């Protein structure tokens, strides 16, 4: 349920009526809870953690996990297209990996450390400029209409 803006009452929503972002948070809740409260070693893999989430919320989730990870034995492995996470003040260089597809569709996984960027480099900017590869190649959009 959601509280009305005038605080007079709550309005109930079915899950299907919620936004994609709210449903995504609900979907992630069990893993996030376990990572924050488990005393056991665990690895959590989340594909496209940024799906339907605002970039600030995605960054917050990663940052909060990294803070709580200091006192636990959990590891979080995520895939994402969210370039704001390419920040060495948030994630170490050895924790950033890229995937590049070749012409045949085969994927190659490689580390940011392969490039040995200076510590003062803006990783996000250099990535978007294509310096680390892993930029999608979609071809000529005009050919889609043929």
Give me a quick take on this structure.
This protein is an alpha+beta fold and 146 residues long.
Descriptive labels:
16% strand; 27% helix; single chain; 146 residues; two-stranded parallel sheet; two-stranded antiparallel ribbon
On the 0-100 scale, what is the average pLDDT? 88
- The total count of helices amounts to 3
**Residues in helix, %:** 25-40%
Rg for CA atoms: 19 Å
Shape: globular
Largest sheet: 2 strands, antiparallel
The tally of beta strands, per DSSP, is: 6
Alpha carbon gap, first and last residue? 48 Å
Q: Give the neighbour order of strands across the main sheet.
A: 1-2
Q: Could you name the ranges where pLDDT drops below 50 across 5 or more consecutive residues?
A: none
Structural class: alpha+beta
Order of helices and strands: EEHEHEEEH
Beta-strand residue percentage: 15-25%
Description:
The protein is globular, with a radius of gyration of 19 Å. The chain is 27% helix and 16% strand. The longest helix has 18 residues. β5 and β6 form a beta hairpin. The N and C termini lie far apart (48 Å). The model has no long low-confidence stretch (mean pLDDT 88). The chain has a two-stranded antiparallel sheet with strand order 1-2. The chain has a two-stranded parallel ribbon with strand order 3-4. It is an alpha+beta fold and 146 residues long.
List the helices and strands and how they pair.
Layout: E1 2-3, E2 10-11, H1 20-37, E3 42-46, H2 55-69, E4 74-78, E5 97-101, E6 107-111, H3 123-128
Parallel strand pairs: 3-4
Antiparallel strand pairs: 1-2, 5-6
């Amino acid at each position: 349920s959601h509280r009305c803006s005038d605080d007079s009452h709550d309005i109930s929503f079915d899950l299907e009526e919620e936004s994609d972002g709210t449903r995504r948070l609900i979907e992630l809740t069990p893993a996030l809870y376990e990572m924050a409260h488990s005393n056991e070693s665990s690895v959590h893999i989340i594909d496209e953690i940024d799906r339907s989430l605002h970039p600030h919320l995605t960054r917050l989730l990663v940052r909060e996990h990294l803070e709580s990870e200091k006192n636990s034995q959990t590891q979080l492995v995520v895939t994402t297209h969210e370039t704001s996470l390419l920040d060495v003040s948030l994630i170490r260089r050895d924790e950033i990996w890229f995937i590049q597809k070749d012409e045949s569709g085969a994927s190659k996984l490689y580390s940011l450390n392969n490039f040995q960027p200076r510590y003062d480099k803006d990783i996000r900017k250099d990535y978007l400029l294509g310096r680390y590869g892993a930029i999608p190649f979609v071809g000529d959009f005009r050919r889609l209409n043929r």
